[in-house]
Amino acid sequence: MAQLDKIEELVTRLKNKDKIALARLISIVENSPEIAKIIFKNIDHLLKSAYIIGITGSPGVGKSTLVGKIAKKLMDQGKSVGIISVDPSSPYSGGAFLGDRIRMTNLTMNPKLYMRSLASRGVTGGLSRATFDICLLMEAFGKDIILIETVGAGQSEVDIIKLAYTNIVIVAPGMGDSIQIQKAGILEIADIFVVNKCDLGGDDIIAQFNMMLDDAITYSGLTGWRPSAIQTNGLTGEGIDELIEEMWNHKEHVELSGILDEKRKTMIKNKIIDLIKYEVEKYILSGLVNENELKEMVSNIFNEEFSIFEGAESIIEKFFSKLKK
Ligand SMILES: Nc1nc2c(ncn2[C@@H]2O[C@H](COP(=O)(O)OP(=O)(O)OP(=O)(O)O)[C@@H](O)[C@H]2O)c(=O)[nH]1
Ligand SMILES: [Mg+2]
Predict the structure, then answer these.
(1) Is the pTM of this model over 0.85?
(2) Is the beta carbon of 152 within 6 A of some atom in ligand 1?
(3) How close is the Cα of 70 to the center of ligand 1, in Å?
(4) What are the boundaries of each domain within the chain?
(5) What does the alpha-carbon distance between residue 75 and residue 174 come to, in Å, rounded to a whole number?
(6) What's the confidence (pLDDT) of residue 275?
(7) Which of 30, 221, 237, 250 gives the lowest tally of CB atoms within 10 Å of its CB?
(8) Which atom, in ligand 1's list, is nearest to the CA of 65?
């Protein structure tokens, strides 16, 4: 495949901070995990030099606006920033759309910034797999900070949230506040809690959040970190400095406590398992049972000739007996 010859050249260009090479490699990684393996044979990063920050919140709370403001400040501090905007519900992908808020600030023109949006369509092997791989590419490119924006609702997004070293959860007044806060697992997710649109209020949300924290007595015992609640205004930039300062505080906390290394090790473990699963599944589905056989099996099960478990078991047995040969 002609594409394969180009991989090495693209990786070299990536390491020389060529944005076009980064964009091409991300597209390849999104669409074909097969070729992604070849890319990563030439890249030996372990997400140690790039720091990953997750920004999660319901639609419209101001995530993209804040991401734009945060990115700008970080770049002013001399950091190189990558943004991944994950939107499973969006029909677009491939960097074609991204928060117009960010675009409006002309940030896209900044050479220190690279943005990419990711939708389910066109991504092979799961959004979290692609997000992880894109983080690796961005790190190899030389990004210091990677910001991942997600709505955080689906399972694949929960997996993406687990990738981030510091998670910022954003809510906004007047958008079903108590529901937003009570949403599953906010205390487990939020390292920093942000109430955006403070021009519209939000003191009550802060009070409610602090009460919840006080109730969760065991919480601080788990990680030794008590999330703070910060009010921001995405339009004026109010509160952004405080938010960034808190990000650095949390970074220091996870680094010194060893939590960060544990997290990285878990990511490595999950990646190994992912790769094995992918290969084994591919082997079984192409080598041991083809699409037609599987179809026939499904009809037989549907006609109650045997059970789902017996069907799966027969394939697994075939797999192991083949291994023994
Ligand atoms: N009043 C007010 N409006 C804000 C503030 N921050 C953002 N907005 C507005 O809120 C709207 C949604 O902002 P986005 O940044 O697109 O929100 P989002 O969370 O990224 O939205 P999705 O990506 O669609 O989930 C936009 O019209 C923003 O201009 C703020 O602090 N105050
Ligand atoms: Mg957005």
Answers:
(1) yes
(2) no
(3) 14
(4) 44-257, 271-324
(5) 32
(6) 85
(7) 221
(8) 15
Ligand index nearest the alpha carbon of residue 60: 1
Q: What are the Cα distances from residue 155, in Å, to 130, 151, 188?
A: 14, 11, 15
Ligand 1 nearest atom to the CA of residue 151, by list position: 25
pLDDT tens by residue, 91-139: 554 444 444 445 445 666 677 889 888 887 767 777 888 899 999 999 9
Residue of the CA atom closest to atom 17 of ligand 1:
62
Ligand 1 atom closest to the Cα of residue 85 is 23
Q: Which helix (H) or strand (E) holds 292?
A: helix 291-302
**For 247, left (φ over 0), alpha (ψ -120 to 50), or beta?**
alpha
Which mutation among 89, 101, 147 tests ligand 1's pocket best, with the greatest number of atoms within 8 A of CB? 101
Can you tell me the distance from the alpha carbon of 4 to that of 14, in angstroms, rounded to the nearest whole number?
A: 15
So what's the pLDDT on residue 58?
85
The two tokens of residue 174 are 């007047």
Residues of the chain with pLDDT under 50: 1-2, 93-101, 103-104
pLDDT at res. 285: 82
Structure confidence by residue, pLDDT tens digits, 60-89: 899 999 999 999 999 999 999 999 998 766
The Cα 139–Cα 49 span in angstroms is 7
Task: Take residue 225 and report the two structure tokens written for it.
Answer: 């970190």
The CATH-assigned architecture of domain 44-257 is: 3-Layer(aba) Sandwich (3.40)
Cα–ligand 1 centroid distance for 20 (angstroms): 29
Give 290's contacts (C-beta < 8 A, 6+ positions apart): none
Q: Dig out the tokens for 187 from the structure.
A: 């205390």
